[in-house]
Design goal:
This protein is α+β, with helices and mostly antiparallel strands. 20% of the residues lie in helices and 22% in strands. Strands 3, 4, 7, 10 and 11 form a five-stranded mixed beta sheet that branches. β1 and β2 form a beta hairpin. The longest helix has 20 residues. It is globular, with a radius of gyration of 18 Å.
C-alpha cells in the first residue's frame, strides 16, 4: 500500500503540490489565456503528436503549398503545457538532488544506483520514448543535445527518496541526452495510481546534458498521461490492486492537472501487459 499520501492529500484526495494550488495558478491561468487569445484570433493551437507519437502537421496545412505551409507551421505547433513538478522531484527544488549523483544518466531506471539501497522496482515493463522538438520551427526540428529527466511513482504509488519505506531508493529516476532525432528512451515499469491523481510521469527538459546534471536552466516541466484502457489492463495484473481502487472515480477530465486539456500530453501506447508497453510522446519546447 502506498504510504506517502497521508500528510499531502487535501480536498477530496488530491495532492496539494500535484494540484498546484496558488503557486501553480499562474501557470494554468497563462495556459487558459493563450487558448482564449488563440480563439479570438482564429489561430488554432494544436499539438504536434500523432497517434504514433511522431511530429505531425495539420490536414489544413498539408493541403496548402510548401510556402504557406512553412509560414504557418510555427502557429500550429504549441509548446508542451507547463505543469507542476509536484512534491517529489528529486531535482534539488524540494530537498534531495539526484541529478548531481553519478549514475543518474541512464536508460534503464528500474533499479536504484549509487549509494542507494540497490533495490529494483517491480511492475509491468514500460519503455518511454520522448521526442523533443523545436516548437518555433513548427515541430520540424529535433532538439539534438537537449536532455530529459523523468521520474514517477512505483507500483504501490510511492516515490523513491521521499516516501516512507523507499527513502533509501532512487529508482524510477533518470536522465538521457536527446539523439539526432531528438529522442530519449527510458526502460521502466508502469506507474501505479495513487489517491487523487490520474496515472502520470513527470519530466523536465533541459537545454543540455550539462544543465540537467547541474540541475539548472530547466526549459520545460510537464507531465505525461496514460490512456484509461491501458491503465485498466495493467492494473488488473498482480501487484496493482490498490491502483484499481484509486483509479475508480478518477478521469482525465476531472484530474487536477489534466482537466484543462490533456491532448498534447496523452501518450500513444503499444504493447500488452504480458509483453510490456511502449509509450511515446512528442515534446515541443
Amino acid at each position: 500500500m502506498g504510504r506517502h499520501h497521508a500528510d499531502e492529500v487535501h480536498d477530496g484526495g488530491v495532492h496539494e503540490h500535484d494540484r498546484g494550488l496558488s503557486y501553480d495558478l499562474p501557470v494554468l491561468a497563462r495556459r487558459r489565456m493563450i487558448r482564449l487569445m488563440a480563439g479570438a484570433s482564429l489561430v488554432p493551437l494544436v499539438g504536434c503528436t500523432s497517434q504514433d507519437g511522431t511530429p505531425a502537421a495539420s490536414s489544413a496545412s498539408s493541403a496548402k503549398g510548401s510556402a504557406s505551409s512553412s509560414a504557418s507551421s510555427s502557429a500550429e505547433c504549441a509548446t508542451i503545457p507547463d505543469e507542476t513538478a509536484g512534491p517529489f522531484p528529486g531535482d534539488g527544488s524540494n530537498g534531495v538532488n539526484v541529478l548531481k549523483e553519478s549514475g543518474v544518466v541512464r536508460s534503464d531506471i528500474t533499479s536504484s544506483f549509487g549509494d542507494s539501497a540497490g533495490g529494483t522496482a517491480e511492475g509491468v515493463p514500460l519503455t518511454v520514448t520522448l521526442t523533443v522538438v523545436d516548437a518555433a520551427s513548427g515541430c520540424g526540428t529535433p532538439k539534438k543535445g537537449a536532455a530529459v529527466y523523468i521520474w514517477h511513482c512505483d507500483r504501490a504509488g510511492d516515490y523513491s527518496l521521499y516516501s516512507e519505506g523507499v527513502t533509501d531508493e532512487n529508482w524510477l529516476r533518470g536522465v538521457q541526452e536527446a539523439d539526432g532525432s531528438g529522442q530519449v528512451t527510458f526502460r521502466s515499469i508502469f506507474p501505479g495510481c495513487y489517491a487523487g491523481r490520474w496515472p502520470h510521469i513527470h519530466f523536465e527538459v533541459y537545454g543540455s546534458l550539462a544543465d540537467a546534471t547541474a540541475g539548472t536552466s530547466i526549459t520545460s516541466t510537464s507531465q505525461l498521461a496514460f490512456p484509461k484502457d491501458v491503465c485498466d489492463t495493467v492494473y488488473a495484473t498482480d501487484g496493482y490492486a490498490e491502483s484499481v481502487r484509486n483509479l475508480t472515480g478518477l478521469s482525465l477530465e476531472t484530474d487536477g492537472i489534466f482537466s484543462d486539456g490533456y491532448g498534447r500530453q496523452l501518450a500513444a501506447m503499444k504493447g500488452s501487459a504480458a509483453a510490456g508497453y511502449t509509450a511515446t510522446l512528442t515534446v515541443p519546447v
